[in-house]
User: Fold these one by one.
Assistant:
Number 1:
Amino acid sequence: MSHALKWEFPGGKIESGETKEECIKREIKEELNIEIEPLLLLQSNFHSYHSDKEIELIPFVCRYIKGKLILREHQQIIWVKPSKLALLDWAEADIPIISQIKSLEADNKLPL
Ligand SMILES: Nc1nc2c([nH]c(=O)n2[C@@H]2O[C@H](COP(=O)(O)OP(=O)(O)OP(=O)(O)O)[C@@H](O)[C@H]2O)c(=O)[nH]1
């Protein structure tokens, strides 16, 4: 909501007592109604949107396990090939993540 109409990866904030893997599974189930398995932890990106708000974005490459995809919180969802990710208008914090995905794909290191 704070970056309305920008593209973001589905996810959300870690709750207390939760691991980052538990968090991403819970958030994807809550937001998209599907079960996923995190396969590869990418590098975090620390980003400051305003002086009062800093986020650590912790990206995972995940595998779809099961479930019917339902949009519970987002306006729109799309599947995008790694080579086309940079064409979208991303939330600022996401830009370095896109570069990581592109270079992993170029090196054939995406576990998909
Ligand atoms: N999920 C997600 N959030 C991102 C990305 N990039 C980015 O800047 N953010 C920001 O990181 C924050 C994540 O919070 P969220 O609102 O998704 O978390 P949440 O589901 O736990 O929400 P809640 O606090 O309303 O329960 C938001 O300010 C969001 O705009 C991204 O790629 N994915």
Number 2:
Amino acid sequence: MNRVFGSEDTPEFFHKIESVLKPLLSIVEREFINDSASTAAVQRGDVPRNITSLVSFAERREDLQPWERSANVRVVERDASDKPTAVEADLQTLVRDFGAHIAIPVLYGKDFLERNPQFLDDFWRFDNDLFPLLMVGVPPWIPLKIIQDGIASRSRMTVALEGLYRRIDQYQKGDPVDFNADMSDVGIATERNQVYDKFGVSMKHRADMDLSFVWGQNANTQPLVFWFLAYIHSAPGLVEDLRREIAPWVKVATPGPMEISSMDISALHRECPLLKSAIYETYRLGSEATSIRRVDRPITLLDGDHKHQLQPGTFVSAPFSVLQNDASYFPDPEKFVPDRFLEVDSETGRKVARYGKLRPWGVGPASCKGRTFAEKEILTITAALISIWDMEPAEGAWNVPASLPGTGAKKPAKDIRVILRRRVAP
Ligand code: HEM
């Protein structure tokens, strides 16, 4: 928090964090791991409605959807009556910002991103450019543009979060709310605010603590939506197979341009083994989970002929991406094999997707507290997108770009330019 998220390096901050961390995490766990609560949370993001305007076909910048604004959208095809029918866009940027517009209002309500339209650009600049440098110990005062721009983005995000918590606090206490903002749809941030209030955490410290939380909610999830879409489209015939598998759970209104009339998010998560196996394979290739633990008491580990003695006060780091690429666990590890995680259940005879050795969420009691929500968000966005949109690569063939190390999920070395058309039912 000090080194990367820029929180105050003071005993007061440290003391506050120690008191609030457990109650804050238990709120997240209750909302985002539990099956029915996580489904309800994804439902609040209203993917079926929003996906209809994934690209709006608008030509004036001010008419674009907020998630289209950084994606270089361009109308590339029109019908006989001059109505736009196809749009070209940068896939990674488009789905990353679409996903963030689904997820962030679930925490903070709709007003937050509308009031802070720069937040997402700042978020990704911080995540892509600044985070990895600070993480390896580069000092924040170095007068390099990449660092100073990243620090400015981080400061703007903290100011935005501080303003948000002030408004939530005013709303909860029945005081007049700054700008008369609508706080009625704020999600678990209201419960977080009660914890902050109970322990006397200042508004600035609330913002410092929440920055790492909103980062954790988005930094891995949204890039993985991109990798998932890129991989499933690059495997011949897979999108058609997935459309067939999800069809009972994603109802589409016909005739005309397709629209989703209902979606069973829990069933997508429970009843679609190929979709699940393909997302596990995407985690294997696209995520870089690491569990880091502080050693509390001396431990001796035996490892073949080696004996490791772990000293209290040191840290142990388990980078699971090493295992994810180990050919002895995953043959042809560089290949995307969508059914790699499919098994036949010996009792029911049904196909199921099982993690096996994969650990995308870390391990033990400190493993990811948002995993069910994250997975449902990715599956819901992907299932909705392939149900009502056709997508093809502008350069003719699906070439999944090389990946670069990221801050939890890999970054594509370059974006994919895609052409999107609404699917039309007879
Ligand atoms: C695909 C998306 C995601 C991936 C791959 C992911 C992965 C991880 C990993 C590897 C950890 C560290 C676990 C460990 O130390 O063993 C973690 C921690 C955490 N994640 Fe996620 N995460 C994702 C999405 C989310 C979301 C959507 C949320 C919140 C809604 C979230 C909240 C958290 C929290 C609060 C922790 C800290 C847990 C603790 O210290 O007890 N994550 N995540």
Number 3:
Amino acid sequence: MSIIEDGFSSDRLFNQGYSYTYDDVIFLPHYIDFPTDAVLLPTKLSRRLPLSIPCVSSPMDTVTESHMAVSMAALGGIGILHSNAASSDQAAMVRSVKARRVPLLSAPVFKSPEDRIHNDDVFDHGANPYVLVTESGAPSSKLLGYVASRDWVKLADKEVKIYDYMVSCKDMVLPWSSDLGRIEEFMAEKGRDVAATVRGDEVVDVVGKEDVERIRGYPKLGVGSVGPDGSWRVGAAIGTRESDKERLEELVKAGIDVVVLDSSQGNSIYQIEMIKYIKKMYSDLDVVGGNVVTVSQAQNLIQAGVDGLRVGMGSGSICTTQEVCAVGRGQATAVYKVASVASQSGVPVIADGGISNSGHIVKALTLGASTVMMGSFLAGSTEAPGAYENQNGRRIKKYRGMGSLEAMAKGSDQRYLGDTAKLKIAQGVVGAVADKGSVLKFVPYTMQAVKQGFQDLGASSLQSAHDLLRSGVLRLEVRTGAAQVEGGVHGLVSYKKKSF
Ligand SMILES: NC(=O)C1=CN([C@@H]2O[C@H](COP(=O)(O)OP(=O)(O)OC[C@H]3O[C@@H](n4cnc5c(N)ncnc54)[C@H](O)[C@@H]3O)[C@@H](O)[C@H]2O)C=CC1
Ligand SMILES: O=c1[nH]c(=O)c2[nH+]cn([C@@H]3O[C@H](COP(=O)(O)O)[C@@H](O)[C@H]3O)c2[nH]1
Ligand SMILES: [K+]
């Protein structure tokens, strides 16, 4: 029997002179000999940083602050805190992530018994259900009790001191490192519906029964990303200016696990010098360089000593770089090419930008990435910074590019106006994304969909997918415009798309 050629090998497909993105390419199914649940997704963000799911949140000021970072770590991924803030504020975000072990949406507020609560600002209009009362009103002082928003609302006289109506807190304290299960047990033992966590002399957090129930309502959390000291792992972005060295020092003191050099074009003298500086000063800290999209860009940063590479130029949903600067690359080609060279040095690749569904994640990972970094996919979640707004009857959250005029005006300004640049040109837009609920719910469902994709490919792990691709066993094709239409929902008068 003669051998019939079917599909292309990745090598052949990506060497035709086209810049392909995720939607352009499709994998041909392979052979299934294991169940979906046998697919395992543990991976690495960078050389020394393991994760149990391949998900990373973007260092953008409408995506990753402490709530997002805690939840990403609780899911087994990681969040990269943005740097569009004073270095002290970015370091405070790191400390906040490191302090808590439960993915809460509130931030503890402290008062002294002598204080009065005149209005519900301290409860953030219901978002913060409890105020903690300590002797001095600071976290590092003796815990005396708490005030619940639901009790305060019923208070006839709001002028009385907290002392007169707070609930005393005997038996409500447990160590900061207690996980949700332990906190739940503790509440049951003590017959309480509120618990506080403490670390040394510092009161860290307050957990209510409603928090426990909310989190229990989501899919069961797997193995979270915790460091050797039991705190959540977290990363932070910095730039490549002189002032970023001081920022880094603060971030390292606050306990970051990885630093990401945040630039649209990482192959620069500034970045290479910064990588060498960090490797010399902080040899225990993993450094992710980028962004890159070509083999030679990647080689330069690998040679400089990066522990991870972030791939993507102009592929992001809010990016206008390719239009403005005429440089970049289709994301599927970029991930494949960079991963081909990075894998030879054992440097993990982060596929950054352009992810809008689980299929894109399967494609990014199979093409060689170890993780995907997402902005718009996560920006509509409860954990993203900012409040929901109403836009034509839809609940939305603001989402903006870090190179948009608005974001630059807030802080990244100095990167543009610092020394030589005189005129500001935007490379991103300001927009909005739809409410998606909690990442604690939709990320696990997305990972289940990714596992189904891997099963169809006959790959039971990321490594196995990479091996199948590179050995030429896994075949691909380019989809024509018509094939892409066919691959989507088509020909219906109307439909509702609900995946879970
Ligand atoms: N992934 C992507 O496609 C893109 C991402 N972005 C995002 O926008 C933000 C800003 O990105 P960029 O503008 O690329 O930031 P950047 O800080 O890398 O570059 C800004 C300008 O400053 C210059 N510069 C950097 N370090 C310097 C130093 N030490 N001395 C003198 N000049 C120096 C750069 O060459 C560039 O002209 C980041 O958050 C980035 O992730 C922006 C555009 C595209
Ligand atoms: O050209 C750009 N102008 C910008 O203003 C900008 N801000 C962020 N980014 C990059 O986009 C990624 C997020 O993309 P997604 O929303 O598609 O996940 C992010 O992770 C970044 O790599 C930008 N790119
Ligand atoms: K784009």
